[in-house]
Amino acid sequence: MKMKIPLDYVCVRSGLLCNRCQSLIDSGEVADYEVEIIKILLELEDTQFKELKDCVYHKAYKVNGLLILLVTSGSEMTQQKWIKIARILQERLNMKVRVLEKTNSIKNSAVQLLSPARVLGVNTVWMPDGSVQYVIRVSKSEKRLLPAEAQLLESALTKIHSTPVRIRVE
Fold this sequence. Notes:
The chain is built from six helices and six strands. The protein is α/β, with parallel strands linked by helices.
């Protein structure tokens, strides 16, 4: 069994995309930079991280110099191994990398992304037009622990959950 990916293994390894894979990229469902990321993950699975075989790759988001991978871990995958994989990707792609477990909970995503800073809470703000916005509260004393600028992290969470997210330092 191999890591589950949205593209065909042969296409990713060869770099030549079949019609199905090309249409996923053309439609924007898979970004073109993701092919390289998936290729590196498959290499890592073959060489040093056999545990990746039980994992699912969902999506990668690039926000300025930060790359966020959304994955579902297999039973044998630990946080420490994801940190090592993130470091390898960081060196190869020359950008900051964070690996997040895919979740529908904005709070869980925020806790993972903003770590080591602690999330005090998540407020739901109902806008006059009926839309919803989420405000993630972080303590002022922990602002320096954020892994990137608050605006960067806001736009990352907004992309991941396709709903507006703000970070408020209080």
